Amino acid sequence: MQIVEFTADTLRFSDAVPGKAPADGFVWVFVDRDEVETHQALLQQAAQQLGGSALLDLHRQDLANPLHPSHYDFTSIYDLVIFRRLATQAETRAEAEHDAAVAAYHGQTRAKPRGGLPAFNRISSRAVGFVVFDRLLISVHPRGCYTAKSFIERALSDAKFSVDATSARNRIPSGPIDLVLRMVNAMVDSYLDVRKELTNQLEHWQAELLKPDSRFINWGSLMGARSQLHVLEDLCDEQHDAMQEWLDSLREQPMSSFAADAQLAQTRRDQMVARARDVIEHIQRVVHHARRLEQSAETVVQIHFSAQSNRTNSIMRTLTALTAIFLPLNLITGFFGMNFEFLPLIHTATGFWWLFGFMILLVIVVVTVFWRKQYLARTAR
């Protein structure tokens, strides 16, 4: 568990829960999810001393639940926000290795990665929980969560190298809400970053499907990718609903919860609302991109089968034309093959050549007609 005290232009780490929050700042307590039960007493102490209310048991269970969907809830004292971030490559790799070890232990074959290609394995999420008080933020992260660590490292770097006090104050969060929105925005940006990988992999499949001599057999991976895009869309819908509810709650909060000064409170609330709207807009972009990729995958599959059907029709047209060419020849040979003593031309020395020449002429005429009508072409113009 880490405890960070933020003031107007600095931050510092603390070994214990302070008795009260800084006059011009707030306290951030972040803990790994698997240590929530271990530090339960300290979390409740921080919530009671710095926030003014203990955490409800139901909310504590929600924070400890790694499978909880994106969600927003509130009490009269604090807000609860649960947001699912994208899994990192290291987390995805560790999960795949764990699944493989479990499968090997039970004597099963190793399951193929979801989506068939590495990028679609990234469409796996982890729950991050936030309890937002006026002067206190409690956040619960998966072990080794990059969101908290990267923010702390960036804040320390800015505080170390910044020589401009105004610039430093702009980089330090103004309150718990501001800090949560910054971290959530970083989580959403990770979804935007993975768009290029997903697009490149689907474009590769599209190129394979649209080849004239396509022998595409990776249908299981393609269907798995579409399924993962459905998961991404549902995940973003949950995120959008949670953030929209929180945005509505921010608009309804009294000015005094942002700052004592009325003008400063108005400015901070406008900043928080604008930042929340920006996060929602980013989520909407991810949803739009997921739907576009899904529609693109469906469209290229339809085009593939349409092309296959067109090639099949072209082959059948050619075979039908060839059958039509030889059909009159079969009729003629069948006619003169009948066992009658008296038939035209059978007793003349040149009868065979007259009939053979007529058959050749008939073939030339029929082939010429079919060629002009493009019945013998592999693809129609």
Task: Describe the protein in words.
Helix content is 60%, strand content 11%. With 381 residues, it is an alpha+beta fold. Among the domains are: 135 residues, Beta Polymerase, domain 2 (2-Layer Sandwich); 34 residues, no CATH class; 62 residues, Magnesium transport protein CorA, transmembrane region (Methane Monooxygenase Hydroxylase, Chain G, domain 1). Strand 6 and strand 7 form a beta hairpin. Helix 7 packs parallel to helix 10, helix 8 runs parallel beside helix 10 and helix 9 runs antiparallel to helix 10. It starts with a strand and ends in a 9-residue tail after the last helix.
Offer a few descriptive terms.
Beta Polymerase, domain 2, 60% helix, Methane Monooxygenase Hydroxylase, Chain G, domain 1, 11% strand, single chain, 7-stranded mixed beta sheet, 7 strands, 381 residues, alpha+beta
Strand order of the largest sheet: 2-1-3-7-6-5-4
- What gap, in angstroms, lies between the N and C termini? 71 Å
Order of helices and strands: EEEHHEEHHEEHHHHHHH
Global outline: rod-shaped
Regions with pLDDT < 50 over 5+ consecutive residues? 110-116, 161-168
The name CATH uses for the topology of the domain at 1-86 and 124-172 is Beta Polymerase, domain 2
Largest sheet: 7 strands, mixed
Rg, nearest Å = 36 Å
The helix/strand class is alpha+beta
CATH class categorisation of the domain at 1-86 and 124-172: Alpha Beta
Q: What is the number of beta strands?
A: 7
CATH architecture of the domain at 1-86 and 124-172: 2-Layer Sandwich
Helix segment tally: 11
Strand content range: 5-15%
In which range does the helix fraction lie? 55-70%
Task: State the fourth-level CATH superfamily of the domain at 1-86 and 124-172.
Answer: CorA soluble domain-like
